[in-house]
Amino acid sequence: MKPRKKVLEGIVMSDKMDKTLVVKVVRKTQHPKYKKLVEKWKKYYAHDAENRAKEGNKVKIIQSRPLSKLKKWKLLEVL
Known about the structure:
about 80 residues; mainly beta; CATH 2.40.50.140; five-stranded mixed barrel; about 0% helix
């Protein structure tokens, strides 16, 4: 049985490249010492074949095979 691919939800930071998005994914974690919720975020480069998503849109991305040096995710849907 194949492992299921990861799906992440984030906001498009940049759509200036052709067929490529930069998606910011935010996750909340608790600080180990102070127990305060801290927002950590990471940028993912995603493939957008039809240039559907625009900057500021909320999107879902799915893990895929490496498409380039940085792109390892594909656009699943625009929310």
